[in-house]
Please model this.
Amino acid sequence: MGGGDGGGAEEELTAQETALYDRQIRVWGVDAQKRLSKAHVLVCGVNGTTIEFCKNIVLAGVGSLSLMDDHIVTEDDLSANFLIPHDESMYGGRSRADVCCQSLKDFNPMVRVDVAKGDPSLIDGEFIDRFDIIVVSCASLKTKLFINDNCRKRNKHIAFYSIECKDSCGEIFVDLQNHSYVQKKPGVDPKQMELAYPSLQEAIDVPWKSLPKRTTKLHFAMRVLESYELSEGRGPGETSLSDLPAVLARRKDMCDRMSLNESQIPTALLERLLAAGKKEHPPVCAILGGILGQEVIKSISCKGDPIKNFFYFDAADGKGVMEDIPPTPAD
Model:
Protein backbone atom coordinates (compact mmCIF):
# COMPACT_ATOMS: atom_id res chain seq x y z
CA MET A 1 0.00 0.00 0.00
CA GLY A 2 1.36 3.41 -0.91
CA GLY A 3 1.69 5.50 2.23
CA GLY A 4 2.87 8.96 3.16
CA ASP A 5 6.35 9.92 4.24
CA GLY A 6 5.57 8.92 7.82
CA GLY A 7 6.08 12.46 9.08
CA GLY A 8 9.85 12.07 9.07
CA ALA A 9 9.79 8.70 10.84
CA GLU A 10 13.14 6.94 10.88
CA GLU A 11 13.59 4.01 8.54
CA GLU A 12 14.68 1.65 11.30
CA LEU A 13 12.74 0.72 14.42
CA THR A 14 14.27 2.04 17.63
CA ALA A 15 15.48 -0.37 20.29
CA GLN A 16 12.47 0.65 22.39
CA GLU A 17 10.05 -0.16 19.55
CA THR A 18 11.76 -3.47 18.83
CA ALA A 19 11.47 -4.47 22.49
CA LEU A 20 7.86 -3.31 22.85
CA TYR A 21 6.63 -4.95 19.65
CA ASP A 22 8.78 -8.07 19.85
CA ARG A 23 5.90 -10.55 19.92
CA GLN A 24 4.07 -9.11 16.92
CA ILE A 25 7.30 -8.67 14.94
CA ARG A 26 7.63 -12.45 15.32
CA VAL A 27 4.15 -12.80 13.80
CA TRP A 28 4.24 -10.38 10.85
CA GLY A 29 7.91 -9.40 10.55
CA VAL A 30 10.00 -6.29 11.04
CA ASP A 31 9.12 -4.78 7.62
CA ALA A 32 5.41 -4.89 8.44
CA GLN A 33 6.10 -3.25 11.81
CA LYS A 34 8.09 -0.48 10.09
CA ARG A 35 5.21 0.20 7.70
CA LEU A 36 2.78 0.24 10.60
CA SER A 37 4.89 2.70 12.58
CA LYS A 38 4.76 5.15 9.66
CA ALA A 39 1.02 4.85 8.92
CA HIS A 40 -1.39 7.67 9.77
CA VAL A 41 -5.00 6.76 10.57
CA LEU A 42 -8.11 8.99 10.78
CA VAL A 43 -11.24 7.73 12.52
CA CYS A 44 -14.41 9.73 11.84
CA GLY A 45 -17.04 8.78 14.40
CA VAL A 46 -16.07 7.61 17.88
CA ASN A 47 -18.28 4.83 19.28
CA GLY A 48 -17.96 1.45 20.93
CA THR A 49 -16.98 -0.25 17.66
CA THR A 50 -14.37 2.22 16.43
CA ILE A 51 -12.84 2.48 19.91
CA GLU A 52 -12.24 -1.28 19.89
CA PHE A 53 -10.46 -0.78 16.56
CA CYS A 54 -8.48 2.21 17.88
CA LYS A 55 -7.33 0.23 20.92
CA ASN A 56 -6.09 -2.58 18.68
CA ILE A 57 -4.05 -0.45 16.28
CA VAL A 58 -2.63 1.74 19.06
CA LEU A 59 -1.40 -1.37 20.87
CA ALA A 60 -0.03 -2.68 17.56
CA GLY A 61 2.06 0.49 17.13
CA VAL A 62 0.49 2.55 14.34
CA GLY A 63 2.33 5.80 13.62
CA SER A 64 -0.48 8.19 14.49
CA LEU A 65 -4.21 8.17 15.12
CA SER A 66 -6.55 11.16 14.77
CA LEU A 67 -10.09 11.11 16.18
CA MET A 68 -12.82 13.24 14.61
CA ASP A 69 -16.08 13.43 16.55
CA ASP A 70 -17.31 16.74 17.97
CA HIS A 71 -20.49 15.24 19.48
CA ILE A 72 -20.79 15.84 23.21
CA VAL A 73 -20.80 12.65 25.30
CA THR A 74 -24.24 11.53 26.50
CA GLU A 75 -25.29 8.70 28.83
CA ASP A 76 -26.11 6.59 25.77
CA ASP A 77 -22.39 6.52 24.90
CA LEU A 78 -21.53 4.78 28.16
CA SER A 79 -23.14 1.44 27.29
CA ALA A 80 -20.64 0.36 24.60
CA ASN A 81 -17.68 2.76 24.69
CA PHE A 82 -15.43 1.33 27.42
CA LEU A 83 -13.07 4.35 27.33
CA ILE A 84 -15.68 6.80 28.61
CA PRO A 85 -15.70 6.89 32.44
CA HIS A 86 -19.09 6.55 34.12
CA ASP A 87 -18.43 9.72 36.13
CA GLU A 88 -20.23 12.67 34.56
CA SER A 89 -17.78 15.08 36.16
CA MET A 90 -15.11 13.55 33.92
CA TYR A 91 -17.00 13.58 30.61
CA GLY A 92 -19.67 16.28 31.03
CA GLY A 93 -19.57 18.85 28.24
CA ARG A 94 -16.67 17.17 26.45
CA SER A 95 -16.65 15.63 22.98
CA ARG A 96 -16.39 11.89 22.40
CA ALA A 97 -13.05 12.36 20.63
CA ASP A 98 -11.62 14.47 23.45
CA VAL A 99 -12.64 12.06 26.21
CA CYS A 100 -11.22 9.02 24.42
CA CYS A 101 -8.00 10.64 23.18
CA GLN A 102 -6.12 10.65 26.48
CA SER A 103 -7.08 7.07 27.35
CA LEU A 104 -5.75 5.86 24.00
CA LYS A 105 -2.47 7.71 24.60
CA ASP A 106 -2.14 5.81 27.87
CA PHE A 107 -2.44 2.46 26.03
CA ASN A 108 0.77 3.17 24.12
CA PRO A 109 2.70 6.42 24.73
CA MET A 110 4.78 5.73 21.60
CA VAL A 111 1.76 6.36 19.34
CA ARG A 112 0.70 9.93 18.56
CA VAL A 113 -3.02 10.30 19.27
CA ASP A 114 -4.80 13.61 18.70
CA VAL A 115 -8.22 15.15 18.13
CA ALA A 116 -9.15 16.48 14.68
CA LYS A 117 -12.00 18.94 15.10
CA GLY A 118 -14.50 19.37 12.30
CA ASP A 119 -17.40 17.85 10.40
CA PRO A 120 -16.55 14.68 8.41
CA SER A 121 -19.05 15.71 5.72
CA LEU A 122 -16.97 18.83 4.99
CA ILE A 123 -13.37 17.58 5.07
CA ASP A 124 -11.36 18.47 1.99
CA GLY A 125 -8.75 16.64 -0.03
CA GLU A 126 -5.81 18.56 1.42
CA PHE A 127 -6.81 17.38 4.91
CA ILE A 128 -7.34 13.81 3.69
CA ASP A 129 -3.81 13.77 2.24
CA ARG A 130 -2.43 13.67 5.79
CA PHE A 131 -3.65 10.08 6.20
CA ASP A 132 -3.07 6.62 4.79
CA ILE A 133 -6.18 4.99 6.29
CA ILE A 134 -9.62 6.55 6.87
CA VAL A 135 -12.29 4.78 8.93
CA VAL A 136 -15.83 6.18 8.98
CA SER A 137 -18.65 5.28 11.36
CA CYS A 138 -21.87 6.90 12.73
CA ALA A 139 -22.14 8.79 9.42
CA SER A 140 -24.84 9.06 6.78
CA LEU A 141 -24.47 7.24 3.48
CA LYS A 142 -24.01 10.64 1.82
CA THR A 143 -21.00 11.42 4.05
CA LYS A 144 -19.45 7.98 3.49
CA LEU A 145 -19.78 8.35 -0.28
CA PHE A 146 -18.29 11.86 -0.12
CA ILE A 147 -15.22 10.76 1.87
CA ASN A 148 -14.73 7.59 -0.20
CA ASP A 149 -14.88 9.62 -3.41
CA ASN A 150 -12.34 12.11 -2.05
CA CYS A 151 -9.97 9.29 -1.08
CA ARG A 152 -10.08 8.01 -4.65
CA LYS A 153 -9.35 11.45 -6.14
CA ARG A 154 -6.06 11.94 -4.28
CA ASN A 155 -2.67 11.33 -5.86
CA LYS A 156 -1.59 9.16 -2.94
CA HIS A 157 -3.14 5.79 -2.05
CA ILE A 158 -5.65 6.15 0.81
CA ALA A 159 -7.51 3.09 2.09
CA PHE A 160 -11.16 3.66 3.03
CA TYR A 161 -13.23 1.66 5.53
CA SER A 162 -16.73 2.15 6.88
CA ILE A 163 -18.00 0.21 9.87
CA GLU A 164 -21.38 0.08 11.61
CA CYS A 165 -22.76 -1.88 14.54
CA LYS A 166 -26.53 -2.03 14.93
CA ASP A 167 -26.95 -3.84 18.25
CA SER A 168 -26.40 -7.52 17.35
CA CYS A 169 -25.58 -6.90 13.65
CA GLY A 170 -22.53 -5.36 12.03
CA GLU A 171 -21.17 -4.34 8.62
CA ILE A 172 -17.68 -3.43 7.41
CA PHE A 173 -16.99 -2.04 3.93
CA VAL A 174 -13.47 -1.99 2.48
CA ASP A 175 -12.09 -0.01 -0.48
CA LEU A 176 -8.35 -0.45 -1.04
CA GLN A 177 -8.65 0.74 -4.67
CA ASN A 178 -5.81 -1.19 -6.41
CA HIS A 179 -4.10 -3.32 -3.80
CA SER A 180 -0.97 -5.47 -4.13
CA TYR A 181 -0.12 -7.99 -1.44
CA VAL A 182 1.74 -11.21 -0.76
CA GLN A 183 -0.41 -14.30 -0.29
CA LYS A 184 1.12 -16.98 1.92
CA LYS A 185 -0.35 -20.45 2.29
CA PRO A 186 1.14 -23.47 4.11
CA GLY A 187 3.33 -25.54 1.81
CA VAL A 188 3.03 -23.06 -1.07
CA ASP A 189 5.54 -20.43 -2.18
CA PRO A 190 4.47 -16.82 -1.45
CA LYS A 191 2.47 -15.37 -4.34
CA GLN A 192 2.13 -11.75 -5.40
CA MET A 193 -1.56 -10.86 -5.77
CA GLU A 194 -3.42 -7.87 -7.22
CA LEU A 195 -6.96 -6.82 -6.30
CA ALA A 196 -9.09 -4.06 -7.83
CA TYR A 197 -11.80 -2.75 -5.50
CA PRO A 198 -15.03 -0.98 -6.41
CA SER A 199 -15.95 2.24 -4.63
CA LEU A 200 -18.79 2.23 -2.11
CA GLN A 201 -21.06 3.83 -4.72
CA GLU A 202 -20.20 1.14 -7.27
CA ALA A 203 -20.70 -1.64 -4.71
CA ILE A 204 -24.17 -0.53 -3.63
CA ASP A 205 -25.22 0.21 -7.24
CA VAL A 206 -24.80 -3.44 -8.30
CA PRO A 207 -28.25 -4.79 -9.31
CA TRP A 208 -29.50 -7.25 -6.72
CA LYS A 209 -30.58 -9.77 -9.34
CA SER A 210 -26.95 -10.13 -10.46
CA LEU A 211 -25.71 -11.04 -6.96
CA PRO A 212 -25.18 -14.69 -5.96
CA LYS A 213 -28.19 -16.39 -4.38
CA ARG A 214 -26.18 -17.07 -1.23
CA THR A 215 -25.66 -13.31 -0.60
CA THR A 216 -26.41 -12.62 3.06
CA LYS A 217 -29.83 -11.15 3.82
CA LEU A 218 -28.13 -8.55 6.02
CA HIS A 219 -26.58 -6.95 2.91
CA PHE A 220 -30.00 -6.25 1.42
CA ALA A 221 -31.51 -5.18 4.75
CA MET A 222 -28.74 -2.60 5.30
CA ARG A 223 -29.31 -1.16 1.83
CA VAL A 224 -33.06 -0.79 2.51
CA LEU A 225 -32.42 0.90 5.85
CA GLU A 226 -29.83 3.37 4.49
CA SER A 227 -32.10 4.17 1.54
CA TYR A 228 -34.93 4.94 3.95
CA GLU A 229 -32.70 7.10 6.16
CA LEU A 230 -31.41 8.98 3.12
CA SER A 231 -34.88 9.67 1.72
CA GLU A 232 -36.18 10.86 5.10
CA GLY A 233 -33.13 12.96 5.93
CA ARG A 234 -32.43 10.85 9.02
CA GLY A 235 -29.04 10.43 10.60
CA PRO A 236 -27.69 6.90 11.08
CA GLY A 237 -29.68 5.03 13.69
CA GLU A 238 -32.39 7.70 13.89
CA THR A 239 -35.11 5.12 13.37
CA SER A 240 -37.41 3.07 15.55
CA LEU A 241 -40.02 0.34 15.23
CA SER A 242 -42.60 3.04 14.48
CA ASP A 243 -40.88 3.39 11.08
CA LEU A 244 -41.52 -0.26 10.19
CA PRO A 245 -44.55 0.29 7.88
CA ALA A 246 -42.65 2.87 5.84
CA VAL A 247 -39.52 0.70 5.74
CA LEU A 248 -41.55 -2.30 4.57
CA ALA A 249 -42.98 -0.14 1.79
CA ARG A 250 -39.44 0.85 0.86
CA ARG A 251 -38.45 -2.84 0.87
CA LYS A 252 -41.29 -3.69 -1.53
CA ASP A 253 -40.38 -0.84 -3.87
CA MET A 254 -36.67 -1.77 -3.94
CA CYS A 255 -37.35 -5.49 -4.37
CA ASP A 256 -39.77 -4.79 -7.24
CA ARG A 257 -37.21 -2.60 -8.99
CA MET A 258 -34.36 -5.06 -8.37
CA SER A 259 -36.35 -8.24 -9.20
CA LEU A 260 -35.69 -9.72 -5.76
CA ASN A 261 -38.15 -11.72 -3.69
CA GLU A 262 -39.07 -9.83 -0.51
CA SER A 263 -38.41 -13.00 1.50
CA GLN A 264 -34.69 -12.28 0.99
CA ILE A 265 -35.11 -9.38 3.42
CA PRO A 266 -37.03 -10.87 6.38
CA THR A 267 -39.33 -8.52 8.27
CA ALA A 268 -37.91 -9.82 11.54
CA LEU A 269 -34.42 -8.71 10.47
CA LEU A 270 -35.63 -5.22 9.58
CA GLU A 271 -37.42 -5.06 12.94
CA ARG A 272 -34.15 -5.86 14.73
CA LEU A 273 -32.24 -3.19 12.82
CA LEU A 274 -34.93 -0.57 13.44
CA ALA A 275 -35.22 -1.43 17.12
CA ALA A 276 -31.43 -1.16 17.47
CA GLY A 277 -31.43 2.54 16.65
CA LYS A 278 -27.96 3.73 17.71
CA LYS A 279 -27.43 0.94 20.24
CA GLU A 280 -24.28 -1.19 20.01
CA HIS A 281 -23.84 -4.61 21.58
CA PRO A 282 -20.37 -4.60 23.27
CA PRO A 283 -19.42 -8.19 22.29
CA VAL A 284 -20.27 -7.40 18.65
CA CYS A 285 -18.24 -4.16 18.92
CA ALA A 286 -15.25 -6.24 20.05
CA ILE A 287 -15.62 -8.68 17.14
CA LEU A 288 -16.00 -5.96 14.50
CA GLY A 289 -13.23 -3.81 15.97
CA GLY A 290 -10.92 -6.81 16.13
CA ILE A 291 -11.57 -7.76 12.52
CA LEU A 292 -11.15 -4.19 11.30
CA GLY A 293 -7.86 -3.92 13.19
CA GLN A 294 -6.58 -7.06 11.47
CA GLU A 295 -7.71 -5.78 8.06
CA VAL A 296 -5.97 -2.42 8.46
CA ILE A 297 -2.74 -4.15 9.53
CA LYS A 298 -3.03 -6.43 6.48
CA SER A 299 -3.48 -3.49 4.12
CA ILE A 300 -0.56 -1.56 5.64
CA SER A 301 1.78 -4.57 5.68
CA CYS A 302 0.61 -5.85 2.27
CA LYS A 303 0.53 -9.35 3.73
CA GLY A 304 -2.48 -11.68 3.83
CA ASP A 305 -5.77 -11.87 1.95
CA PRO A 306 -7.86 -8.77 2.73
CA ILE A 307 -11.65 -8.52 2.87
CA LYS A 308 -13.27 -7.63 -0.47
CA ASN A 309 -15.68 -5.77 -0.24
CA PHE A 310 -18.14 -6.29 2.65
CA PHE A 311 -18.00 -8.20 5.91
CA TYR A 312 -21.20 -8.95 7.85
CA PHE A 313 -21.71 -10.32 11.32
CA ASP A 314 -24.96 -11.35 13.00
CA ALA A 315 -24.91 -12.48 16.63
CA ALA A 316 -28.18 -14.34 16.03
CA ASP A 317 -26.26 -17.11 14.27
CA GLY A 318 -22.71 -16.13 15.23
CA LYS A 319 -21.60 -16.15 11.60
CA GLY A 320 -19.24 -13.76 9.88
CA VAL A 321 -19.72 -13.51 6.11
CA MET A 322 -17.57 -11.84 3.44
CA GLU A 323 -19.32 -10.57 0.32
CA ASP A 324 -17.28 -9.83 -2.80
CA ILE A 325 -19.59 -7.65 -4.89
CA PRO A 326 -17.94 -6.77 -8.21
CA PRO A 327 -19.22 -3.67 -9.98
CA THR A 328 -21.45 -4.13 -13.00
CA PRO A 329 -19.39 -4.01 -16.22
CA ALA A 330 -19.96 -0.92 -18.34
CA ASP A 331 -21.98 -1.42 -21.52
